[in-house]
Amino acid sequence: MNFKLFGRSGLKVSEVCLGTMTFGEDWGWGASKDESRAIFDAFTAAGGNFFDTADGYTNGTSEKFLGEFIKGSRERSVIATKYSFNMRPGDPNAGGNHRKNMIQALEGSLKRLGTDYVDIYWVHAWDELTPSDEVMRGLDDLVRQGKVLYVGVSNTPAWVVSYCNAISEIRGWSRFTGLQVEYSLLERTPEREFLPMAKALGLAVTAWSPLCGGLLTGKYGAGAGIGEEKRLDKSAFVEIDERKLKIVDTVKSVAAELGRSPAQVALAWTRKRSIPILGARTLGQLHDNLKCLEFLLSYEQESRLNQASAVPDGYPYEFLRKPMVHDHLHGGTFETIQN
């Protein structure tokens, strides 16, 4: 296991993160406490130190289990949890990004985790109602209190993330250090805005659902389930279409060449571009996923995967690349400019 700096910080996190949404069976699926413990132990034995959870995962059981498991190793563990989801349906202030829920949610997470601080506190999803300055000042207060070390943001438009970091930098508040997005060979649209923004702002990128709800494990091939919505994993619905299945077949082809599982190939591709969050319901799944650390894809294999899974960049990027636009902007000199 190697380590990466978490964005523009000195924090070192393992190159893959263990997602703990599967810890607990409260939702009718997931891992028992004993199996969760075995998964945790295997991940730490492999050198992993980065754990992802949330206040609402398995009704709080995920945080409780993780809190028990890190006893005796809290100092070496990098614990990331999230807030925003409503924990008391019917109460409009029991969810969202606002300060009241932020404080209540963090206090609940700290109790369940059995710790007095979290390393990374994520905004789980943008609620479209709370002012950006309220969110950023509230998070900065938590950092100044020592209850949170770094802050991150997930499931939020790129322009909102950029604006939040801009006003925070101007006002001397804590900025977002990490970005969490859905990213995989089957979901590459973050490459349009999110990944370039993360590079420009120095944000660590963590990828949730890097196996697209299990589809990239190779469970299905071309011609199966077209036009239907199938439950591939009880934690996620994935709509199957011909394009996705053709991508999966390319992954399976590369996996056969390497003597690897399709999941390992898909994770190796994502690991080069982000920190994938591994979510396993069984110890066997985790062991298989961790083998993505043992190899690198060749240039030819990566090119095949890129070509099979490519998504259009769309406007304005395709417009800006047109020769006519280059000529209007640069007077025919664009190709001579070193950049």
Task: Kindly describe this structure.
- The chain is an alpha/beta fold and 339 residues long.
- It has a single domain, classed as TIM Barrel.
- It is built from twelve helices and twelve strands.
- Strands 3-4-5-6-7-8-9-12 form an eight-stranded parallel β-barrel, surrounded by six helices.
- α2 links the parallel β4 and β5.
- The longest helix is centred in the last third of the chain and has 17 residues.
- It starts with a strand and ends in a 9-residue tail after the last helix.
Main features:
single chain; 339 residues; alpha/beta; TIM Barrel; 12 strands; 38% helix; globular
Number of domains: 1
CATH class group: Alpha Beta
Rg, Å, rounded: 21 Å
User: Strand fraction band?
Assistant: 15-25%
CATH superfamily: NADP-dependent oxidoreductase domain
Number of discrete helical segments: 12
What ranges have pLDDT less than 50 throughout 5 or more consecutive residues? Answer: 226-235
**Secondary-structure-derived class:** alpha/beta
- Gross geometry: globular
Mean model confidence by pLDDT: 94
Strand segment count? 12
Strand order of the largest sheet: 3-4-5-6-7-8-9-12
Q: What's the CATH topology name?
A: TIM Barrel
What's the order of the H and E elements? EEEHEHEHEHEHEHEEEHHEHHHH
